[in-house]
Each structure stands twice: as structure tokens, then as C-alpha cells.
Hints:
The complex is a heterodimer of chains A (370) and B (277). With 370 residues, chain A is mainly alpha-helical. Helices cover 69% and strands 3% of the residues of chain A. The two termini of chain A are 34 Å apart. Chain B is α/β, with parallel strands linked by helices. Helix content of chain B is 40%, strand content 22%.
Amino acid sequence: xxxxxxxxxxxxxxxxxxxxxxxxxxxxxxxxxxxxxxxxxxxxxxxxxxxxxxxxxxxxxxxxxxxxxxxxxxxxxxxxxxxxxxxxxxxxxxxxxxxxxxxxxxxxxxxxxxxxxxxxxxxxxxxxxxxxxxxxxxxxxxxxxxxxxxxxxxxxxxxxxxxxxxxxxxxxxxxxxxxxxxxxxxxxxxxxxxxxxxxxxxxxxxxxxxxxxxxxxxxxxxxxxxxxxxxxxxxxxxxxxxxxxxxxxxxxxxxxxxxxxxxxxxxxxxxxxxxxxxxxxxxxxxxxxxxxxxxxxxxxxxxxxxxxxxxxxxxxxxxxxxxxxxxxxxxxxxxxxxxxxxxxxxxxxxxxxxxxxxxxxxxxxxxxxx
Amino acid sequence: xxxxxxxxxxxxxxxxxxxxxxxxxxxxxxxxxxxxxxxxxxxxxxxxxxxxxxxxxxxxxxxxxxxxxxxxxxxxxxxxxxxxxxxxxxxxxxxxxxxxxxxxxxxxxxxxxxxxxxxxxxxxxxxxxxxxxxxxxxxxxxxxxxxxxxxxxxxxxxxxxxxxxxxxxxxxxxxxxxxxxxxxxxxxxxxxxxxxxxxxxxxxxxxxxxxxxxxxxxxxxxxxxxxxxxxxxxxxxxxxxxxxxxxxxxxxxxxxxxxxxxxxxxxxxxxxxxxxx
Lengths: 370, 277
């Protein structure tokens, strides 16, 4: 895409809606004095970072990763071990934020390497395995990671003498800043030669290789950058929480982040932000409220069933229903990237009328014309 | 269309690594077997510099397999391939592409959900130098390089006659334009040799005539050598300097188009023994 010729002004005009929403989010803690709500918004921001990272792997490069929580765990432990009484280390938070991301990025490449030859289902299965292995390793090395007890008393960040403490607001603002910087970096990557190479291998690996794209490095960079942003998320998450343990990184985390990416629209950076925010607030705030309303209505109308419902416990049932509806009604996600809409429509047409394709065989399955 | 010397800046390969004996591509005794099936059997094949050579043969003769061996998609079972004096046997596809062999595919394999311009930019990928750190910092060098690449890609599209379709998704282009786009993408690699796999497939005589003209321009204006697999004999006989005929994986004839036209083994391979008696 051509850059806005008018410099800053063009840039502001191009992203006016994103900037407007950013302003709303910056102002939000000033109006909501409920610390619990702000805390939940900060947690949502952690998941937004995770979704942004996974979107690079799944949305851009088309590599289905079901074990993304592994990198979240590695980023989290990287900071936890470096700034807690466990090893008696107290490395400063801000450089460690970057170091945690780099460590996660390195592990992204390391765990990506064995999967390079795999595609689709097989890739998903192997990444699922890694997603289970990493927390299990943290669980079973109590000498080095605190095992099942995890690590407690993780030091909280300070900024020019200001203690972050247990007040969610500074974490919230830090997370927003990190998200903004991440989005700028990700948009630049997307519009670069690297971003184009990711799209090309998603489209057709053989054609991409024949055009001089090194599949190995391109895929490893996708895994690595994807993991990198989860490192930010991990460090900020455990710094805010003050504790880390292996059970925070089970499969439901990988699944939830993937659901956020799919819901928002794979490949669309702003879409996945919306997807993550919506899904997170849905599960924490909306379901709690819904439970309370249902109890109130149940008591008023004397319907016993309504007073017993707990929607928070039904979370995954509702997720499942929601995803089924999404796949039926809007398979490309709520805010699809232009290309994804095109791909989905293509598959639909193929399914409906295979005969009609006629003289223009566009989508050749890999390996077909060998 | 734009003046040839401007397009030369974009696609002309640096003439580094002169070809020994004037042979750009030299394949010796190349064999490719899939289990018991020998698809290509001890084929010697050479492409002289600045030439247009064609590989023909009945269906299943091993033409595309030979292409895929040259392009690095298959490892040859035995034999050796040199390109501009370098041994490329068994190298990876992207390495071979970067050395200067570009290709198109029998069933068009453009990046369907990318724009025409982005398709061509992929062809330039290996020549662009931006690394992730500089990309994220958005340095002046990266901005300049991207701008130059977009400009060059647009000029390449203009060269193949798609100058007004820059931002069209490739899948939405008509079939003939998709073929041109695939060639533009291949040219963006600055190849010294381009492998065209049945470029005239599905074209009517008028389109085929324009394609022949275009292939001649590739050599004449861009100084790219062309290796052509083609079923339309009119095209092969019209543009090729030399023709090699494969049948059941073996080379059965080689020569100028006129010699091939009169070769009894070729006629037999195509039409069966009955045609000769």
C-alpha cells in the first residue's frame, strides 16, 4: 500500500477510527472508578496482545498454531524468575519486558523448527503437543520453576520512583502503550517484504519457493514474531498478578486466543483486537451480569430454573454455541481482512459449483501439477 | 508499453558468471525415478545463452518432471545440472530461483488473494534487503526501497500489458491476464533463464500469436533465455531455435524445428506407428 503522501496528517486520517477508539480507551479509567473493572480491562489488554501475536502466525502466515499458550508461559516465567525472591534476583522491569519478549521469540523459532515440514492438521496437532509440554515442564521442574506452587512475590514495576503496586491503572496504561507500539510494528511488518512473504506462503508454498522465498526462514520468523508479542503479554501479566503457576497456561488459553483471532477476523489487525476485547469482556463481565439478571428475573417470576443458572460455569458451552453460529453465519469473522472474505467466498463457490470453474483454475491444491 | 531500456533496468540480470561454452543451462544424464517409474531417463539437455529452446513430447513424456528437477522441486535420482557454470543439482527451489532461473506453472499458480502488484513484488522479494528490525523502525532506507520496488513492479506490469490492474486481486483477473501476471512475477526475479510450462494452453490462435511475439521480446529486449514446454506446435515451431523431444522419459530427438518436423521417431511418438506406414 502506498503511504499517505501528506505525512502525519495522512497517517492520522487513515487511522482516524483506530485513534478515536484509542482516545476512548485512554479516557476510560478516568470515568470508571471501579478498580475491578479497570483490572479486568487490563487483563483484556493482555489477551489483545496475545491475539495480535497469534494473528501473525495464523492470520498472516496461515500456520495453525494450537499451542500458543506455551510462549505466553515462557514470557511469563522469564520475568517471574528474573524478578522474584525465588532466585533472589531483582532485575528491573522495563528492560526485562523486552528480554522476556525476545526469549519468547527465540523459543518461537526453536519450537517452530520441528514443524516446518508440516501443514494444516498435522501442524495443529504438533503445536497442540508443544502447548501441553511447556507448562508440564514448568510443573515438573520444581527446583527451577517452583513446580506446582509456581512463583510468588514477583516484584512489581516502578517508573521513576512511582510504585505500580496493586493499582490496576498504571498496568492498564502500560498495556495500552505496548499495544499501540505493537500494532505499529505489526502493520509495518505486514506491509513489508516479510509480510508479503508470509501471505505468499499462506497462498501457495511451492509457488513462493519458486519465487525465491526461503520457506524455512519465513516460517520461523512468523513463529518467532508471533511468540515475541506473547512475551510482552506474559511479563506484564505476571507483574500485575504477582504470581505465576503452570495451570495458568493450559489449553483453554490457547483455545481462547485462537477463538479471539477467528472471531475478530483472521489477518485483520484491528479485527483481532476487537475480537479479543469482545470475547474477554463477554466471559468476565457479561456472563457475571447475565447470571445476576437471570437470578433476579427468576426470583421475581418464581421460575426456579433461572435462579439456579450460572452462566460463568457455562462459559465453554456458550463459546461452543457462539463459534458454531459464527461459522454458519459469518465464517470470515466479525471484521474480516479483505483477503479472507475472498478466500471464504472462493471455498463456498467451489463447494456449490465445482463444474462452473471452467477455464480459470485459480486455486490449485499444493503439489497438484507436479 | 514502455521503452525497452527502462524495463531493462528492472529485469536485466547482471551478466555475472559467464556460461562456459555459451551454455547457460547444462543438464547431463538427468534421471528422475518415482519408485519403479522412471519419469525422466538419462536426459542430456542444454540451453545456450540468449536462446529460445523448446521441450515437447506426448502427455506423460516427463517434460514437467524435468522442469521440476531443474527448478529444484525434485531431487534428480542421478545426473548433474549446471547453470551459468555453477552446479545446482539438488539445490533448494528458492536458491535456484535466486541464481536466475524463474518459472511459470502448467496450472497457473499465482497468489490468488494478493493483488497483481503484490504478486510481482513477491518476485522481487530476494532482491529487497529490508530486515525485520529496519522494517519495524521504518527507516528511510526501507521506505525508499519499498517505493522503488512498487514503482518497478508497476512498470513490469505495464510491460506485460497489465499496467491498469495493479490493485486488482489476482484471482479476479481474466485467464489470459493471469498467465501474463505469472510471467511478470517470474521476470521480477531478474532471471537469466525463464521456464514457461505450457504458456499457450487454452489460448486461441490470435492470443497464441501475441504470446509468440511476447516470447521473442523476452529474448530480444530483456535478453532472457527461454525454455518452453508447449503443446501448440504452431507456437513451438514459430519461436524455438531448437527443439528437444521427450517420449516415455527419454530424449528421442533434438534439432531445429524443421528437422524435428521431418523426424520419423517424433512422428511415430505423436501419431503412432501406423502414421508412418
